[in-house]
Amino acid sequence: MSILTGYPVGSKLCYDLYKDGYLSKIDAKKCITYTSNSGPMFIIGSVGIGILLSKEAGYIILISHIIGALLNGLIYRNMKDEDYKSKNIVYNQNEPETSLSSCVMDSIFSILLIGGIVVVAFIFIEVLNNIGIFYPFVYIFSKIGIDENVAKAIINGFFEITNGCLSLSSLSLNISTKTILSCAIISFGGISTTLQAMAFIKDIVTYKFFITQKITHMILSTIICAILCFIIF
Predict the structure, then answer these.
(1) What angle is formed at CA 89 by the lines to CA 86 and CA 90, rounded to 5 degrees?
(2) Structural domain total, the chain
């Protein structure tokens, strides 16, 4: 489901399974490391075709993103936790009409929460860009040989992936570079996606752990993407 639907559905489902007793806390924590993914509609449709104007780039990012997620799960598969205790399975005993009402209310809450975070992230980025708060970071990037505009795009992607990919699309970079950088931005997910996921899974993982496993996912996906770009483009 995380591969088909995108952020933050995988994290939300992991929390639901943990809450209902189907997963222990440590197993839910492990699942989160490979189910925090972006969906094919966004990667191929929005980023590949819509932003980068390349269907091939979209497929490369999607394949790299998914393989990176699976490898990421393997990295954390032996993770131990002191409070490892399996919860008893508790089946949902609600009446059908009660279950339907709960599903509708849960869906509405989730949509409003995710949409609100995305809007706030977009506004926040624009405000920070306008007041020049990112200038010191851009300056540091420029000192190590990274173009100023590329640095701005990466920083924007650090906060919100759509904004970051849009910023990259306007730059005079070759398609391989744009594809690799977009893959890195999408696989990390940005602060916006982190806030969306943590709104559901804050009882399972810490911000530090979630961001750490997203960084390893980003590294793995970016390496795979670079190899595929070298072969295809």
Answers:
(1) 135
(2) 1
